[in-house]
Design brief:
single chain; 251 residues; alpha+beta; 8 helices; elongated
Length: 251
C-alpha cells in the first residue's frame, strides 16, 4: 500500500549566518536571528546609522522597514526548506513564483515511482466514500505505471545502457501518474520573496493544498525569523479552513 499524505512535511535546511564587520559595528538591542540582523545591518548601512540613534530593537527596526515598504533589505536573508508530502499539482503552482526563488525537484524520469506516495486532496479528507474512490483511482494508476515500466524495459531491450533504458521506460510510463503523486523539492528564497508567496498562497483565494502548505511554511518561518513574518495573522476563514492575512502588503 502506498503512503498517503494529508499534510506537508517541512524541514529547514539553511539559514543566514551573519558576520558583523568590526569597523562597522551596530549598537544592537534585543534578541534576533542572524538573518534579521543581516537585514538590519544592510538597512543601517544605507544611512550609516549603526549607532542606533532611535534606540530600536531589531524587531522594532524591521517593523518600521516593513511599514515603510523598504523591503529590499529583506532580500539579503535566504532560507532553504526541504518540502515533502506535497503533490505535483502543488509544485506546478509553486514554481510560478520566480523572482527570488530557486527550486530543485525530484525527477520522475530518473526516480522509480513504483512505491510513490500520494497526497490526499484536502477537499476529500474525512469523507470515507470520496477517499475510497480516489484511492482506487491512484492505486490503479500506480499499478499501470509499474506494468508499463516492465513492458517498456522489454521493448527497449536493444538499449545496452541499462540506466538509460530505465530512464526511457520511466519517462514514458510517468504519463499515467496523477497530479496527486507526492513529490519532494528543495525551495530557497529570500525573506522578501517568501513574504510575497505567503501573502498570495495563504489567502482565502488560494487552492486548498497550497494554502495548507503556505500556512505550514509561515509557521516555520515565524519561528525562525519572527521579525520578518510576525505581521501575518492566521485565522479561520469562511470555508472553515486556516488562512492568513498580512499587515504590510508588497514590502
Amino acid at each position: 500500500m502506498p503512503e498517503f499524505f494529508t499534510a506537508p512535511r517541512l524541514t529547514l535546511l539553511s539559514r543566514p549566518v551573519f558576520t558583523e564587520p568590526a569597523h562597522l559595528g551596530v549598537a544592537w538591542l534585543g534578541e534576533a536571528s542572524d538573518g534579521e540582523r543581516l537585514a538590519e545591518f544592510a538597512g543601517r548601512l544605507c544611512y550609516m546609522s549603526q549607532r542606533n540613534p532611535a534606540g530600536r530593537t531589531t524587531r522594532e527596526y524591521l517593523e518600521n522597514i516593513k511599514k515603510q515598504g523598504h523591503g529590499s533589505v529583506l532580500e539579503h536573508a535566504n532560507y532553504s526548506i526541504l518540502v515533502e508530502g506535497v503533490s505535483r499539482s502543488l509544485t506546478h503552482e509553486l514554481v510560478r513564483h520566480r523572482a527570488g526563488f530557486a527550486y530543485s525537484q525530484l525527477s520522475q524520469r530518473y526516480v522509480d515511482e513504483s512505491d510513490a506516495a500520494f497526497v490526499v486532496p484536502p477537499a476529500i479528507v474525512g469523507d470515507a466514500a470520496l477517499e475510497t474512490a480516489w484511492r482506487t483511482q491512484v492505486e490503479g494508476a500506480q499499478a499501470t505505471y509499474v506494468a508499463l515500466v516492465d513492458e517498456l524495459m522489454t521493448r527497449y531491450g536493444w538499449v545496452a545502457d541499462k540506466v538509460h533504458r530505465r530512464k526511457m521506460a520511466r519517462e514514458a510510463a510517468r504519463g499515467v501518474l496523477p497530479n496527486s503523486t507526492e513529490t519532494k523539492v528543495v525551495v530557497t528564497a529570500n525573506a522578501r520573496a517568501w513574504r510575497t508567496m505567503l501573502e498570495l498562497r495563504a489567502s482565502e483565494a488560494a487552492e486548498l493544498e497550497i494554502r495548507r502548505f503556505a500556512i505550514a511554511t509561515l509557521r516555520l518561518l515565524q519561528d525562525e525569523a519572527p521579525a520578518f513574518f510576525e505581521d501575518f495573522e492566521v485565522y479561520t476563514a469562511e470555508d472553515r479552513r486556516e488562512a492568513a492575512r498580512i499587515a504590510y502588503h508588497k514590502v
